[in-house]
Protein backbone atom coordinates (compact mmCIF):
# COMPACT_ATOMS: atom_id res chain seq x y z
CA UNK A 1 0.00 0.00 0.00
CA UNK A 2 2.83 2.41 0.79
CA UNK A 3 4.43 1.85 -2.66
CA UNK A 4 1.36 2.55 -4.76
CA UNK A 5 2.30 6.19 -5.33
CA UNK A 6 5.76 5.17 -6.56
CA UNK A 7 4.99 2.06 -8.59
CA UNK A 8 1.55 3.00 -9.90
CA UNK A 9 -1.58 1.35 -8.55
CA UNK A 10 -2.51 -0.31 -11.86
CA UNK A 11 0.96 -0.62 -13.36
CA UNK A 12 2.73 -2.68 -10.70
CA UNK A 13 2.19 -6.42 -11.15
CA UNK A 14 3.02 -6.96 -7.47
CA UNK A 15 0.25 -4.60 -6.32
CA UNK A 16 -2.25 -6.15 -8.75
CA UNK A 17 -1.42 -9.70 -7.60
CA UNK A 18 -1.64 -8.73 -3.92
CA UNK A 19 -4.97 -6.99 -4.51
CA UNK A 20 -6.32 -10.05 -6.33
CA UNK A 21 -5.06 -12.34 -3.55
CA UNK A 22 -6.64 -10.14 -0.88
CA UNK A 23 -10.01 -10.09 -2.70
CA UNK A 24 -9.93 -13.87 -3.24
CA UNK A 25 -9.02 -14.49 0.41
CA UNK A 26 -11.87 -12.26 1.58
CA UNK A 27 -14.33 -14.10 -0.66
CA UNK A 28 -13.15 -17.50 0.61
CA UNK A 29 -13.47 -16.30 4.20
CA UNK A 30 -17.03 -15.06 3.62
CA UNK A 31 -17.98 -18.39 2.03
CA UNK A 32 -16.43 -20.24 4.96
CA UNK A 33 -18.40 -18.13 7.43
CA UNK A 34 -21.65 -18.73 5.54
CA UNK A 35 -21.40 -22.53 5.75
CA UNK A 36 -19.58 -22.91 9.06
CA UNK A 37 -21.40 -24.11 12.17
CA UNK A 38 -18.93 -22.37 14.48
CA UNK A 39 -18.50 -18.93 13.01
CA UNK A 40 -15.37 -16.92 13.73
CA UNK A 41 -17.38 -13.71 13.95
CA UNK A 42 -20.97 -13.60 15.12
CA UNK A 43 -22.74 -11.10 12.82
CA UNK A 44 -25.32 -10.50 15.55
CA UNK A 45 -22.79 -8.39 17.42
CA UNK A 46 -23.17 -5.65 14.81
CA UNK A 47 -26.91 -5.52 15.47
CA UNK A 48 -26.04 -3.81 18.75
CA UNK A 49 -26.22 -0.17 17.68
CA UNK A 50 -23.95 1.20 20.40
CA UNK A 51 -21.19 -1.22 19.49
CA UNK A 52 -21.40 -0.70 15.71
CA UNK A 53 -21.37 3.10 15.96
CA UNK A 54 -18.53 3.01 18.50
CA UNK A 55 -16.49 0.84 16.14
CA UNK A 56 -17.08 3.28 13.28
CA UNK A 57 -15.80 6.09 15.50
CA UNK A 58 -12.92 3.94 16.73
CA UNK A 59 -11.88 2.87 13.23
CA UNK A 60 -11.82 6.39 11.78
CA UNK A 61 -10.33 8.34 14.68
CA UNK A 62 -8.22 5.84 16.63
CA UNK A 63 -7.21 4.03 13.44
CA UNK A 64 -7.14 6.12 10.27
CA UNK A 65 -6.57 9.53 11.83
CA UNK A 66 -4.42 9.00 14.92
CA UNK A 67 -2.17 6.32 13.42
CA UNK A 68 -1.33 8.74 10.63
CA UNK A 69 -0.10 11.22 13.23
CA UNK A 70 1.85 8.49 15.04
CA UNK A 71 3.55 7.70 11.74
CA UNK A 72 4.07 11.29 10.56
CA UNK A 73 5.45 12.93 13.70
CA UNK A 74 8.68 10.84 13.89
CA UNK A 75 9.15 11.39 10.14
CA UNK A 76 8.70 15.12 10.66
CA UNK A 77 11.37 15.27 13.35
CA UNK A 78 13.86 13.03 11.52
CA UNK A 79 13.47 13.86 7.82
CA UNK A 80 12.49 17.54 8.01
CA UNK A 81 14.03 18.73 11.29
CA UNK A 82 17.01 16.35 10.92
CA UNK A 83 16.94 15.26 14.55
CA UNK A 84 18.59 12.02 15.59
CA UNK A 85 16.47 9.01 16.50
CA UNK A 86 17.21 9.48 20.20
CA UNK A 87 16.33 13.19 20.19
CA UNK A 88 13.19 12.40 18.19
CA UNK A 89 12.17 9.95 20.90
CA UNK A 90 12.67 12.64 23.54
CA UNK A 91 10.39 15.01 21.63
CA UNK A 92 7.77 12.27 21.23
CA UNK A 93 7.75 11.89 25.01
CA UNK A 94 6.06 15.29 25.28
CA UNK A 95 2.65 13.91 24.32
CA UNK A 96 3.34 10.29 25.34
CA UNK A 97 3.69 11.37 28.99
CA UNK A 98 0.30 13.07 28.85
CA UNK A 99 -1.25 9.93 27.36
CA UNK A 100 -0.01 8.00 30.40
CA UNK A 101 -1.27 10.67 32.81
CA UNK A 102 -4.68 11.27 31.24
CA UNK A 103 -5.63 7.64 30.51
CA UNK A 104 -6.45 6.65 34.14
CA UNK A 105 -8.02 10.04 34.76
CA UNK A 106 -10.31 9.51 31.76
CA UNK A 107 -11.54 6.27 33.31
CA UNK A 108 -12.31 8.00 36.60
CA UNK A 109 -14.07 10.87 34.85
CA UNK A 110 -16.10 8.42 32.75
CA UNK A 111 -17.29 6.66 35.88
CA UNK A 112 -18.23 9.91 37.56
CA UNK A 113 -19.64 12.07 34.75
CA UNK A 114 -20.42 9.47 32.10
CA UNK A 115 -18.35 8.38 29.09
CA UNK A 116 -20.38 10.55 26.72
CA UNK A 117 -19.15 13.82 28.21
CA UNK A 118 -15.54 12.65 28.30
CA UNK A 119 -15.54 11.44 24.71
CA UNK A 120 -17.13 14.68 23.46
CA UNK A 121 -14.47 16.73 25.25
CA UNK A 122 -11.60 14.62 23.96
CA UNK A 123 -13.00 14.72 20.41
CA UNK A 124 -13.19 18.51 20.46
CA UNK A 125 -9.58 18.71 21.67
CA UNK A 126 -8.45 16.28 18.99
CA UNK A 127 -10.26 18.07 16.15
CA UNK A 128 -8.85 21.43 17.23
CA UNK A 129 -5.34 19.97 17.53
CA UNK A 130 -5.45 18.14 14.19
CA UNK A 131 -6.76 21.15 12.28
CA UNK A 132 -5.03 24.14 13.90
CA UNK A 133 -2.04 23.03 15.98
CA UNK A 134 -0.35 20.06 14.30
CA UNK A 135 -0.61 21.49 10.72
CA UNK A 136 1.23 24.60 11.92
CA UNK A 137 4.44 22.56 12.25
CA UNK A 138 6.95 23.29 9.49
CA UNK A 139 10.68 23.41 8.81
CA UNK A 140 11.09 26.69 10.72
CA UNK A 141 9.20 25.61 13.86
CA UNK A 142 11.64 25.30 16.81
CA UNK A 143 11.80 21.67 17.93
CA UNK A 144 10.86 22.51 21.53
CA UNK A 145 7.81 24.43 20.36
CA UNK A 146 6.88 21.50 18.11
CA UNK A 147 6.99 19.14 21.09
CA UNK A 148 4.81 21.49 23.17
CA UNK A 149 2.26 21.77 20.35
CA UNK A 150 1.76 17.98 20.44
CA UNK A 151 0.79 17.97 24.15
CA UNK A 152 -2.97 18.54 23.47
CA UNK A 153 -2.75 15.55 21.13
CA UNK A 154 -1.55 13.42 24.05
CA UNK A 155 -4.41 14.71 26.21
CA UNK A 156 -6.96 13.82 23.53
CA UNK A 157 -5.48 10.36 22.91
CA UNK A 158 -5.28 9.55 26.60
CA UNK A 159 -8.94 10.37 27.12
CA UNK A 160 -10.26 8.37 24.14
CA UNK A 161 -9.86 4.73 25.06
CA UNK A 162 -11.71 4.45 28.40
CA UNK A 163 -14.99 6.15 27.38
CA UNK A 164 -15.08 4.50 23.95
CA UNK A 165 -14.56 1.08 25.53
CA UNK A 166 -17.29 1.74 28.09
CA UNK A 167 -19.78 2.84 25.43
CA UNK A 168 -18.91 0.02 23.00
CA UNK A 169 -18.52 -2.95 25.35
CA UNK A 170 -21.11 -2.09 27.96
CA UNK A 171 -24.16 -3.50 26.08
CA UNK A 172 -22.41 -6.67 24.76
CA UNK A 173 -22.92 -9.04 27.68
CA UNK A 174 -21.61 -12.52 26.75
CA UNK A 175 -20.25 -11.14 23.45
CA UNK A 176 -17.70 -8.91 25.24
CA UNK A 177 -14.68 -11.09 24.45
CA UNK A 178 -15.44 -11.07 20.73
CA UNK A 179 -16.19 -7.36 20.87
CA UNK A 180 -12.76 -6.62 22.37
CA UNK A 181 -11.02 -8.70 19.69
CA UNK A 182 -12.88 -6.98 16.87
CA UNK A 183 -12.21 -3.58 18.40
CA UNK A 184 -8.44 -4.12 18.37
CA UNK A 185 -8.60 -5.67 14.89
CA UNK A 186 -10.40 -2.63 13.49
CA UNK A 187 -7.89 -0.32 15.17
CA UNK A 188 -4.93 -2.09 13.58
CA UNK A 189 -6.71 -2.30 10.23
CA UNK A 190 -7.39 1.42 10.36
CA UNK A 191 -3.80 2.03 11.39
CA UNK A 192 -2.48 0.05 8.40
CA UNK A 193 -4.68 1.96 5.98
CA UNK A 194 -3.88 5.25 7.68
CA UNK A 195 -0.13 4.68 7.39
CA UNK A 196 -0.46 3.87 3.68
CA UNK A 197 -2.67 6.91 3.09
CA UNK A 198 -0.22 9.17 4.93
CA UNK A 199 2.74 7.85 2.92
CA UNK A 200 1.02 8.38 -0.42
CA UNK A 201 -0.35 11.79 0.54
CA UNK A 202 3.05 13.00 1.75
CA UNK A 203 4.84 11.90 -1.41
CA UNK A 204 2.12 13.28 -3.69
CA UNK A 205 1.97 16.67 -1.97
CA UNK A 206 5.75 16.96 -1.93
CA UNK A 207 5.88 16.38 -5.70
CA UNK A 208 3.08 18.89 -6.27
CA UNK A 209 4.74 21.57 -4.15
CA UNK A 210 8.19 20.95 -5.65
CA UNK A 211 6.81 21.44 -9.14
CA UNK A 212 4.78 24.45 -8.02
CA UNK A 213 7.83 26.11 -6.46
CA UNK A 214 9.80 25.60 -9.68
CA UNK A 215 6.99 27.12 -11.78
CA UNK A 216 6.60 30.19 -9.53
CA UNK A 217 10.29 31.04 -9.19
CA UNK A 218 11.67 34.40 -10.23
CA UNK A 219 14.55 33.74 -12.63
CA UNK A 220 16.61 36.77 -11.54
CA UNK A 221 16.29 35.88 -7.85
CA UNK A 222 17.21 32.23 -8.50
CA UNK A 223 20.23 33.22 -10.57
CA UNK A 224 21.35 35.64 -7.85
CA UNK A 225 21.00 32.87 -5.26
CA UNK A 226 23.14 30.53 -7.39
CA UNK A 227 25.78 33.21 -8.09
CA UNK A 228 26.10 34.21 -4.42
CA UNK A 229 26.53 30.63 -3.28
CA UNK A 230 28.87 29.89 -6.19
CA UNK A 231 31.13 32.74 -5.07
CA UNK A 232 31.31 31.33 -1.54
CA UNK A 233 31.84 27.72 -2.64
CA UNK A 234 34.48 28.70 -5.24
CA UNK A 235 36.76 29.70 -2.38
CA UNK A 236 37.16 25.99 -1.62
CA UNK A 237 36.34 24.24 -4.93
CA UNK A 238 37.03 24.82 -8.65
CA UNK A 239 34.65 27.24 -10.41
CA UNK A 240 32.87 24.57 -12.50
CA UNK A 241 32.28 22.32 -9.52
CA UNK A 242 31.22 25.31 -7.39
CA UNK A 243 28.50 26.14 -9.95
CA UNK A 244 27.17 22.56 -9.80
CA UNK A 245 27.20 22.61 -5.99
CA UNK A 246 25.32 25.93 -5.95
CA UNK A 247 22.61 24.50 -8.21
CA UNK A 248 22.38 21.38 -6.05
CA UNK A 249 22.00 23.62 -3.00
CA UNK A 250 19.09 25.38 -4.69
CA UNK A 251 17.48 22.00 -5.39
CA UNK A 252 17.96 21.01 -1.75
CA UNK A 253 16.30 24.21 -0.54
CA UNK A 254 13.36 23.59 -2.88
CA UNK A 255 13.13 20.01 -1.62
CA UNK A 256 13.01 21.10 2.03
CA UNK A 257 10.39 23.75 1.34
CA UNK A 258 8.24 21.31 -0.63
CA UNK A 259 8.59 18.69 2.11
CA UNK A 260 7.65 21.24 4.77
CA UNK A 261 4.48 22.19 2.90
CA UNK A 262 3.70 18.52 2.22
CA UNK A 263 3.89 17.69 5.93
CA UNK A 264 1.45 20.50 6.69
CA UNK A 265 -0.98 19.24 4.05
CA UNK A 266 -0.75 15.64 5.27
CA UNK A 267 -1.18 16.69 8.90
CA UNK A 268 -4.31 18.57 7.92
CA UNK A 269 -5.69 15.54 6.05
CA UNK A 270 -5.85 13.65 9.35
CA UNK A 271 -8.54 16.10 10.43
CA UNK A 272 -10.78 14.86 7.60
CA UNK A 273 -10.89 11.33 9.03
CA UNK A 274 -11.42 12.74 12.51
CA UNK A 275 -14.37 14.77 11.24
CA UNK A 276 -15.85 11.67 9.58
CA UNK A 277 -15.46 9.76 12.85
CA UNK A 278 -17.35 12.54 14.62
CA UNK A 279 -20.42 11.67 12.54
CA UNK A 280 -20.48 8.24 14.21
CA UNK A 281 -20.05 9.90 17.60
CA UNK A 282 -23.08 12.13 17.01
CA UNK A 283 -25.16 9.13 15.95
CA UNK A 284 -23.93 7.24 19.01
CA UNK A 285 -24.95 10.05 21.34
CA UNK A 286 -28.37 10.26 19.68
CA UNK A 287 -28.79 6.49 20.01
CA UNK A 288 -27.95 6.72 23.70
CA UNK A 289 -30.72 9.26 24.24
CA UNK A 290 -33.37 6.93 22.79
CA UNK A 291 -35.05 4.69 25.38
CA UNK A 292 -34.66 0.95 24.89
CA UNK A 293 -37.76 -1.24 24.20
CA UNK A 294 -37.53 -2.78 27.67
CA UNK A 295 -37.65 0.62 29.29
CA UNK A 296 -40.62 1.62 27.14
CA UNK A 297 -42.59 -1.44 28.29
CA UNK A 298 -41.74 -0.78 31.93
Descriptors:
298 residues, mainly alpha, Growth Hormone, Chain: A, 2 domains, 82% helix, globular, disordered C terminus
Give the SSE layout:
Blueprint (H helix, E strand, L loop, with lengths): L3 H4 L5 H23 L13 H32 L4 H29 L1 H19 L9 H7 L1 H8 L2 H9 L6 H41 L2 H15 L5 H51 L3 H5 L1
Helix pairs in contact: 3-4, 3-8, 3-9, 3-11, 4-5, 4-6, 4-7, 4-8, 5-7, 5-8, 5-11, 9-11, 10-11
Task: Provide a concise account of the structure shown.
Helix content is 82%, strand content 0%.
Written account of the structure:
With 298 residues, the protein is mainly α. The chain folds into two domains: 40 residues; 208 residues, Growth Hormone, Chain: A (Up-down Bundle), CATH 1.20.1250. Helix 4 runs antiparallel to helix 5 and helix 5 packs antiparallel against helix 7.
- Described by its quaternary structure, the protein is single chain
Radius of gyration: 24 Å
Assign the CATH architecture of the largest domain: Up-down Bundle
End-to-end separation in angstroms reads 53 Å
What is the average of the pLDDT values? Answer: 89
Helical residue percent? over 70%
Please tell me the total number of domains.
Answer: 2
Largest sheet data: none
Shape: globular
Number of helices: 12
Order of helices and strands: HHHHHHHHHHHH
Amino acid sequence: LSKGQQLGWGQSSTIVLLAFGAAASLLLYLLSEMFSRNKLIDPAIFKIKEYTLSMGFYFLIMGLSIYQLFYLLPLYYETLKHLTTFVTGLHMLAFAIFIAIVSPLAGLLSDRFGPQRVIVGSTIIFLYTSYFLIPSLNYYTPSIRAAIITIPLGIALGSFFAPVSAMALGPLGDKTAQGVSLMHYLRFLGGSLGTAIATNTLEMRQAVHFEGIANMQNYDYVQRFIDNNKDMISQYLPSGLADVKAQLLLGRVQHLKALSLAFQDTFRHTFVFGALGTIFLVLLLLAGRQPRPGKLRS
